[in-house]
Amino acid sequence: MSIRVVVADDQEAIRTGLCMILGSASDIEVVAEAADGLTAVRTAQEHRPDVVLMDIRMPGIDGIEATRRILAAGSSQVLVLTTFDLDELVDGALAAGAAGFLLKSVDAAGLINGVRAVARGDGVLAPEVTRRVIGRYAGAPRPAAVPGLELLTRRETDVLAGLGRGLSNAELAEELVISEGTTKTHVSRVLAKLGLRSRTQAAIAAQEAGLV
User: Fold this and answer.
1) In whole angstroms, what is the distance from residue 55 CA to residue 49 CA?
2) Which residues contact 178 (CB under 8 A, 6 or more apart)?
3) Per residue in 78-121, pLDDT tens?
4) What residues does 34 pair with on adjacent strands?
5) How far is the C-alpha of 167 from the C-alpha of 160, rounded, in Å?
6) Any idea which architecture 3-134 has in CATH?
7) pTM of structure
8) H or E element, residue 158
9) What is the C-alpha separation between 160 and 93, in angstroms, rounded?
10) Using an 8 Å Cβ cutoff, are 103 and 132 in contact?
């Protein structure tokens, strides 16, 4: 079954290029395009794609607010793709629930693999972004608790710790000696109990809770 994608970017030439790259993958289908944030939200609700490839700076509502609305509706996962790697944009996208954050300098293979990763439930961060996010948490004072952490079972806590280490579902399944399907169920329960929208947010929560 193909991975269904909506491409949201206000520049037509960039949308066309992204569609061509994604269309070159036999397992990816671009089902629609959007030139602004509101259209991206409506299009996601209409087509319910697996992944919305989202630019940040667009007319109307920006990509961060569009991501927040799409995730609130539960229609799709969002992979942010932008020219800018400013900390406030990274933090805003992750806080909104984006499953990944890539820069437009990514090569075709990296983009395709990023879409595939998000579609199968994994998170993606550009290497430049990953280093800075980790740097902000390394050595930071730990809060007493992450709200909802006490609701997790021991196995769910193990899953959260694995997310904090950046493990994919396949890697978690191997480490915990469970199936990928069971892993996905545990990840979903962790997100629900902690009130989070993405595994990237869960990874940050794991760092804050001192599980990593």
Assistant:
1) 16
2) 186
3) 999 988 767 788 888 888 889 989 999 999 999 999 999 999 88
4) 8
5) 10
6) 3-Layer(aba) Sandwich (3.40)
7) 0.76
8) helix 154-164
9) 20
10) no
Q: Pick the range with the lowest mean pLDDT from 95-109, 137-151, 197-211.
A: 137-151
Q: Running DSSP on this structure, what letter comes out for residue 104?
A: T
Three-class SS state of 199: helix
Q: Name residue, tokens 């820069």.
A: 103
Work out the end-to-end distance of the chain between its first and last CA atoms, rounded to an integer number of angstroms: 36
Round to whole Å and give the CA distance between 19 and 185.
32
Q: Give the dihedral sign, CA 44/41/28/32.
A: positive
Q: Give the closest residue to 159 by CA, choosing from 196, 201, 189.
A: 189
Per-domain boundaries in the chain: 3-134, 141-208
Measured CA angle at 131 (ends 57, 141), to 5 deg:
105
**Contact call for residues 128 and 85 (beta carbons, < 8 A):** yes
CATH architecture of 141-208: Orthogonal Bundle (1.10)
Nearest CA among 112, 79, 101 for reference residue 2: 112
- Look up tokens 């991975």; give the residue: 3
